[in-house]
Amino acid sequence: MRKYCLIAIVISIFILQACVTPQGRRQDYVDEHPDLSADISSSILKGEISKGMNREDVRAAWGDPERETLSMIENENKTQEIWSYYTPVGRFTEGTVILTFMDGKLINLVN
Q1: Which residues contact 111 (CB under 8 A, 6 or more apart)?
Q2: pTM for this model (two decimals)
Q3: Which domains does the chain have, with CATH numbers?
Q4: What pLDDT is stored for residue 78 in this prediction?
């Protein structure tokens, strides 16, 4: 009997996780970060991103990237991170979208 209850609980958790919508994820993030500027909050809720956002802001707006690459820039002691989105995201309806972060902040977006 316990085995079946445990299975039912696990299945319920997976179903509930599948019900989380992008809009719900965005709203939850904004609610959990009252220190965000009005511009960034508004962008996240619309599923938009802009230069200066941090990685968590971008994840809230667009979700997880399909690929993340981390590298160090020689002679500058800076960390560069490249995120790739292969599926349509934000205002981009086709092609790969490449985001570049420097020290945790979005500095470039290419489609």
Answers
A1: 92, 95, 96, 97, 98
A2: 0.77
A3: 2-110 (3.30.1450.10)
A4: 81
